[in-house]
Write a structure and sequence with these properties.
The chain is of the alpha/beta class. The chain has 3 domains: about 210 residues, no CATH class; about 180 residues, 3-Layer(aba) Sandwich (Rossmann fold); about 140 residues, Rossmann fold (3-Layer(aba) Sandwich), CATH 3.40.50. It is about 35% helix and about 20% strand. It is built from 19 helices and 20 strands. It has a 7-stranded mixed β-sheet with strand order 1-2-3-4-8-10-9, with helices on both faces. Helix 17 links the parallel strand 18 and strand 19. Helix 4 crosses helix 7. The longest helix is centred in the N-terminal third of the chain and has 20 residues. The protein is globular and about 70 Å long. The two termini are about 30 Å apart.
Length: about 550
């Protein structure tokens, strides 16, 4: 969320002639005196840099930008556009008293209250949010995202004493190289700004980013792919709070049986959290050989494990029946509503801690009458457990979809949202001729994208309220493009509960379309359904 935006001329005038209360308004009134003094000091140092730089007035400057997924705020963001490419500079201003080197050249900063701050991790969290948003976007050029830290009170000797490695203001931590400027380097900082934004015109990158609604993650596995240590995974503030609470709870449990649910409206949020916790316990000497991460579905497990180190993969949930009781066992289930009752019971027999994601909260808690017979048995067992039950529920606003116009169109088909949509970018194609559909799909499969094709008919997937289990998880696997064949015997076109003249109500089809990041092709054998879809798409 934009708190303040300006250009060089305006920010010099504002910081020179206005109070912080005038600049930040409500943000100021919610801050304590110590934070206000820190702002003033850091912004005065930044003003000195801006005053001597030769950047033009088309470069935008944002102060205290707040990400939707994050409690913290980024000190400064600067943007420009060079030859059609957005350039984004993410700046953190720091004035800490002392530091120590931490984990692969990161800087652990302390203020006078000894509150730690991991600088590179903080920058990475911000830059990753932009990179994830625009990752492999099919319509726009990927922007140049650069992190920068300005430690304006930090002496060079202090960094050298702590064995920090940096060279010519380049500071690399893991796979990210940030710019680093310290005390008395305002000229070097100004020179870098001139070089980075040379020949740049105005960019609306932040305004476009700020408009983004909550959508699904594109390539969500990239965050945890091939990770073998939880410290390699960058969490949002909300995710970190959940993890911290869970670990604190387990530490205090004293062998008390505890069932922990992680619930979110985002499957990717859950997967990131459950895998982070798995790596945490696997890298803890006490739990190293007694931590198990499990899921039921073989095809889902196979797809997941292609992304992980062979020593840190999911197991089939059925293997739990062969495990022995151990007070240090930690059992983690992904999608507990798919796990068989006897496997859930075994988990409580052999361990005190069971942690699970819940993809559809109502499957466990709210609508008992809608559950399958297998799920009812599991539900009853969980409800009758004397274990302490903890439910962590949060809204996943971290990730951003590649093709927003496509998602808006899918939402409009179902909910008549009346959102503004760029029709040329929707990438949703509908066919009534099977050969034309097959030719289109054949060409699409030649592209280097993650593609899936789903055929919908009643013998495969039930569209009554009691979903058949074969279709229950069909929509959860992300891809770049989806092909959907809808055949004549699909009940949804015969039953008014699932298809109306103005609204198409089949939510499995909706979730299937939403599982694509960039677009879809639909073949409709039934002309009535074809006409209704065309009408909705063109409305």
């Amino acid at each position: 969320m934009i708190q303040y935006s300006s250009n060089k001329e305006k920010i010099i005038n504002d910081l020179s002639n206005k109070s912080l209360k005038d600049i930040f308004d409500s943000l100021y009134s919610n801050s304590n005196q110590k934070e206000i003094e820190a702002w003033q000091n850091s912004l005065n140092n930044f003003l000195e840099v801006i005053n001597i730089s030769n950047i033009n007035n088309e470069i935008k400057i944002y102060l205290e930008y707040k990400f939707k997924f994050n409690d913290s705020r980024c000190d400064i963001i600067m943007t420009g556009k060079q030859s059609g490419v957005d350039k984004v500079l993410v700046i953190e201003l720091k004035q800490h008293d002392w530091i120590m080197k931490y984990n692969q050249n990161d800087i652990l900063l302390f203020n006078s209250d000894k509150q730690p701050s991991y600088l590179a991790r903080q920058l990475k969290r911000y830059t990753n949010s932009f990179e994830t948003f625009w990752y492999r976007d099919p319509f726009k050029t990927k922007p140049i995202i650069q992190g920068l830290a300005y430690l304006h009170n930090m002496e060079k000797e202090t960094l050298e004493k702590n064995n920090l490695v940096w060279n010519e203001n380049n500071w690399t931590v893991e796979d990210k190289t940030n710019k680093l400027f310290i005390k008395n380097e305002h000229k070097q900082f100004a020179n870098f700004l001139e070089s980075f934004f040379e020949n740049c015109c105005e960019s609306n990158f932040i305004e476009e980013f700020d408009k983004v609604k909550k959508t699904n993650l594109s390539n969500n596995l990239e965050i945890i792919k091939n990770k073998t240590n939880e410290t390699e995974i960058v969490l949002t503030q909300d995710q970190y709070k959940v993890v911290k609470n869970i670990l604190s709870l387990i530490e205090k449990s004293k062998n008390e049986k505890t069932l922990i649910y992680i619930n979110s409206d985002s499957n990717s949020e859950q997967l990131i959290l459950i895998y982070y916790l798995y790596l945490y316990f696997r890298n803890n000497q006490k739990y190293k050989n007694s931590t198990y991460l499990m899921t039921k579905k073989a095809d889902y497990l196979k797809e997941l494990n292609q992304n992980f180190h062979p020593d840190f993969v999911f197991r089939r949930s059925s293997t739990i029946l062969n495990l022995n009781k151990n007070e240090n066992n930690i059992i983690l289930f992904d999608k507990i509503h798919h796990i068989k009752p006897e496997e859930i019971k075994q988990a409580f027999e052999i361990s005190n801690i069971v942690i699970s994601t819940v993809s559809y909260l109502e499957s466990i808690y709210e609508t008992y009458e809608k559950l399958t017979s297998v799920q009812k048995v599991a539900y009853e067992f969980l409800e009758n457990q004397k274990a302490k039950k903890i439910n962590y529920e949060f809204i996943g606003e971290r990730e951003f979809n590649k093709n927003l116009d496509y998602i808006k169109l899918v939402e409009n088909i179902y909910f008549s949202t009346n959102q503004e949509i760029d029709c040329e970018k929707t990438n949703l194609h509908i066919f009534k001729d099977l050969s034309e559909y097959k030719n289109f799909i054949s060409e699409k499969q030649k592209e280097e994208i993650k593609f899936k094709e789903i055929q919908l008919y009643d013998s495969l997937v039930s569209y009554s309220l009691d979903y058949k289990e074969e279709g229950f998880d069909i929509t959860s696997r992300k891809c770049d493009f989806v092909g959907v064949k809808i055949l004549n015997d699909l009940e949804l076109i015969k039953n008014s509960n699932y298809l109306f003249e103005s609204t198409i109500n089949n939510m499995n089809l909706y979730d299937t379309l939403k599982s694509s990041n960039n677009g879809a092709a639909i073949y409709c054998q039934d002309i009535e359904l074809y006409n209704r879809l065309v009408k909705k798409i063109n409305s």
